[in-house]
Amino acid sequence: MEQLTLFSESTVEENGLTNLGAGLSLEIIEGHEKRAKLYSHGVLLKMVNLSDKVAKKLFVLEIIDLGGIQTLLSEALPISRQTIHNYLEIRKYFGLEGLIQGYTLSDSKSRSKQRELHRKERIAGNKAKIVAENRRKEREELEKRQLSFNFTFGSQEEKRIEMEEQPFSEEHDWEETRYAGRFIYLIPMITEWKWLRLVMGYFGKWYKIFMIFLLMAAANIRSIEQLKNVRSREAGIVLGIRRIPSKPKIWEWFYNASRCQVSRYLHTDYFRYQIRAGIVGIWLWFTDGHLLPYTGKERVRCAYNTQRRMPEPGRTSMVTCDVTGRVVDFEIQEGKGDLRSHIMTLARKWGADVPGRPVMVFDREGDGAGFFSGLVSEEIPFVTWEKHADSKKLSALEDKKFTEEFEFNGKNYSVFEGEKTVRYIPEESGGEKHVFKLRRIYIWNKTSKRRTSGLAWTGENEMSTADCARAILSRWGASENTFKHLKDRHPLHYHPGFKLVKSDQQMIVNPEIKEKERITNKIKKGLNKIYRQLTKVKKVLNKDGVPRKNSVKERLKKTILDQEAKLEAIKKEKRQLPEKIDVSTLEDYKSFKRIDNEGKYLFDFVTTSVWNARKQLVDWLRPFFNEENELVDLFYAITDCHGRIKSTKTEVVVRLEPLQQPKRRIAQEQLCRKLTSLGARTPLGKRMIIEVDGALT
Q1: Partners of 178 in the β-ladder
Q2: Neighbours of 691 (CB within 10 A)
Q3: What's the N-to-C CA distance of the chain in angstroms?
Q4: Other beta carbons less than 10 A from residue 55's beta carbon
Q5: Helix, strand, coil percentages, rounded to 5, for the chain
Q6: Helix (H) or strand (E) holding 674
Q7: DSSP 413
Q8: Residue pLDDT, tens place only, 127-149
Q9: What is the pLDDT of residues 469-509, one digit of tens each?
Q10: Where exactly are the structural domains of the chain?
Q11: pTM of the full predicted structure?
Q12: Helix/strand/coil for 317
């Protein structure tokens, strides 16, 4: 009798894909150049050339960051588990530069030539051995620091103050807290982003305001004023700052941090680190602008509210995300903002930190021959919607032309590719045309029975027609979830500490032009009325057959001639007026104010950090819970848990209350074990441990 096996040992699915865990699957394509395609729950994320050693290393790290299981990945590629572990450790100690050093972008495959080219910049010795030695030194240093943590400078009072300013410096026995679940955010931020070290390095003891902001972002507390409803001691011990102080003290911390004027440097260091460490994706970058409304009395520039379809006082936050929804970078711009310049600046800013140019994905606001010309000239790949697509021509396309089919977000699509030639004359070219070709992606949504088209220029990036279509569909329509979740879960619009200064942008549309347009419209409206009257009036003739001069019809004709002459004179006067003028040259006009963004940048830095940490935590939770639709809700249920906390000389321990459902409680326990295994430590060297109360160890 044949024995039945409870679990299948094969990791190959029916469709030929190899399961990697966490909803990831891998497809290996054999050929002249071996390639691999990575899918997440059936959706294509990335395709790489495995013969490219650098691309293969980054591909392996990206799979591990998304939650892929090392054992399954090592069997699928194939590659040893030790090699994968070495990749992770080298990135940890040397960054992406250390991982890819020793390779050249030239076509030569001579190893001796590559070594010679990179001899001066390469790290001497075996990197795996260097990593092992560094880890040994870190353990020894940590043991010394835990055995005796004494300052050798200053008076006893200075030592006491210095120790008290450190996070989690207080020692106490078990204390109940209803904010225990928020402790979860701190662990990945300390281990993956070195967040606490970065903040304390820039702001010293004023780092405490960032711990307050972290609580606000994690608990969706919409303003500093709402902190009056927070239990100060219970929240303070979870954040490591003893207690939440009174509102005047919080504002004092905030203003002291804002006076440092280092928010831009803080942002640059934070975003550069997560790009170099491989925490965010570098294949597709999605950029969109979002309104930050202003409801004060001062006169500020207007942004555009897409929901209300009208201008509204405020600013625009230009946010760039990767394919998983993690925030890569953001910039707050005055008024409506400039999406095109932001994308160009983004590509130049991070060009030296990524091995290849990310594909920029944006909506119809970026459409324009001049902008496309600039992107192609600087070799910046992009994918976007086609703004002025002819719906009648799209409907007239034959169905058989749509040869490639795929499913995305539960909807069926068919696509095919064409070509569009663009001709543009730059102002500085002296009349010389820039002629280039774009890929035109025709998309047919079979579920909703609608058709549209997109444009793409991918340069050296190998993207299929379906890949371009998926990129377009990934952040718009039914898929635009990043900012909706941000708005619902975090105080995205909150701006602590408003400060307004005179704006550099004081140009407005000439009010005389608006007045001329008003008069012109009034004359046109009167002429239309006279035209209708003229068609209804009968022609009156004298006895000799000549039209009577004082008849109604003749009077109407004369009025029309006078009004048309007046209309033409006003149009001529309008053409001679300047389009824009400085508002300071006018009477009865207030100058525009500009909102100082220093405090907003600091707060949004924390909001971004919490959002990216939440993305990472959900990915870590996914292997332990197979209900994808309930995964995010389960994560928020864990972070809302009450619990208790204890701080000793060597460790900070948080124990969460267990969730009621067994399936959810098991996932909660597994996530806590995962976080504890990361070995997070406070600046004092205390180990950070999180457990589930009553769980088996």
Answers
A1: none
A2: 17
A3: 40
A4: 17
A5: 45, 20, 35
A6: helix 662-677
A7: E
A8: 566 666 666 666 665 554 443 33
A9: 999 888 765 555 566 667 777 888 888 987 777 776 767 77
A10: 8-105+125-144, 149-244+625-692, 261-363+477-502+594-605, 368-475, 507-591
A11: 0.70
A12: strand
